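User: We ran a pulldown and think these components assemble together. Before we commit to crystallization trials, I'd like a predicted model of the whole complex to look at. Sequences follow.
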Amino acid sequence: MLHFSKFTAAMLVAASFAIGAASAQTVLKSSDTHPDGYPTVEGVKYFGALVKERTAGRYAVEVYHSAQLGEEKDTIEQVRSGVIELNRVSLAPFNGTVKETIVPALPYIFRSEEHMHKVMDGAIGDQIKAAFEPAGLVALAFYDAGARSFYNKTKPVNSVADMKGLKFRVIQSDIFVDMVAALGANATPMPYGEVYSAIETGVIDGAENNFPSYDTAKHFEVAKNYSLDQHTILPEVFVMNKAAFDKLTPEDQAIFKQAAKDSVAKQRELWAAKVGESRKKVEAAGALITMPEKQGFIDAMKPVYEKHVTDDVLKKMVADVQAVQ
Ligand code: GTR
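Assistant: Here's a predicted model for the assembly, 325 residues in total across the polymer chains.
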């Protein structure tokens, strides 16, 4: 009997340790507008798995995909105020608050995805990351989002002239509004989740995005003319609430940063595969892809640079980006 109760006591101690250990785990919430399986969602999940493993389970990450926590603009407020700890969004909705993000959002600033990688993986990328701190955020990583192009339900676009009068939803940034105006078309910024029905009901003719978004948000069903103008090669950003990051020990901060860095390689690999897959899928479903005369689009963008690249910091950044070979 005595034996048994000793055993029971030992079990109780073990159980309370287990409960203690479980309650010592901090679960961090992360938002994403994309569905489960999308490369950004998987990139953050991979980050979470690495953090969990490297902190021996003291931290875990829960990814709320498919805009479960709200549209991008709302979730940016949530991560800035600390309602959620993490968020994966485009850089464009930060153009108004973190001015350095304007540079990678400029049309045709990057010559290629390789050029973008060199810039964002180097000193200019670090400068953009540092600029998030005054906004209450730590930029942990930049992820790939390929090139954005225009698509619409009305007609194939082969030149700037074909853009005239078309109505496009753009991502929520003034740069995109001015870009569309410079092409002779009309822009309406609107949350991502409203785009499908806005095209379907004819409120707008189309929108602009990369192949994986055009595919997974099903916009190809309602806007089949996709013109590969590739106006931006705009990366995504994975951010953390700064107060939550500052609470981590220096060792854990290093673990988070390294896990984010490691997740970039994973996300890029998934991204490269997804672009090809999505393009095939939308083409098979009847999307018509045109290759518009690109120089006309590039030339039309001068006023966007004149309006948005006004101070010396941004002027120097633009020159620095252009100098990266
Ligand atoms: C996608 C991006 C999303 C979101 C969306 C949009 O390419 O991955 O984060 O910004 O575009 O257009 O709203």
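The domain at 148-233+281-323 is CATH 3.40.190.170 (D-Maltodextrin-Binding Protein; domain 2). That may be worth checking against your pulldown data before setting up trials.

User: Thanks, that helps.
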